[in-house]
Amino acid sequence: MQKIISADWIYPVDADPIENGALVIDTDGTILKVLTAPEAANLEGVLHYDGMLIPGLINTHCHLELSHMKGLIEEQTGLPNFIKEILAQRQQPTEDILAAMKRADEEMYHNGIVAVGDISNLLLSKSVKEQSKIYYHTFVEVFGFNRPSEPIIESGRQLKDDFLPLKASVVPHAPYSVSSSLFEKIATVTQDDDVSSIHNQETMGETELF
After folding, report:
1. What gap in Å lies between CA 65 and CA 172, rounded to an integer?
2. I want to staple 129 with a disulfide (CB 3.0 to 4.6 A). Which of 16, 136, 172, 180 is the partner?
């Protein structure tokens, strides 16, 4: 059975916000119609919410497997120190890491996030993603500057396959951490419809390098 919900404001994305508009929703959650206030005025059974109705949010850059590190690293100490702290503190008991990922996943969902682009170096997040209400696309991150590219890309390709049936793609970490040959190898394992990601220009030094 269809239902009709309204709110003080509705944001339809492809048009201006609608004050006191309404949505006609099918039993499977599909939005059938977006109504203006006059169009919805005489309809029965309208459920009104105070606030706004907006489309689901997308977290385009997440590190779910680092959720257990929330609050552990001092802020504003610079990128080199930040990376050092991640390497020093990321190794924790598996059960603690999984519990933190589940909490982070639930927090995102309850804050209106419906899809996530997630940076991963490990397979550990797969079980959380498979059980989540959120759609995940995993960016399998590879890096290496002064070492052979073939073993790196092979490891990345294997990790991508291990995430199946979840969607994943092999992506570079950053311009300063990926060699030219590794960039070329990444291109060979990238499909036309793959989604990509790269850390870029996060500091003044990176901007100067760029």
Report:
1. 17
2. 136
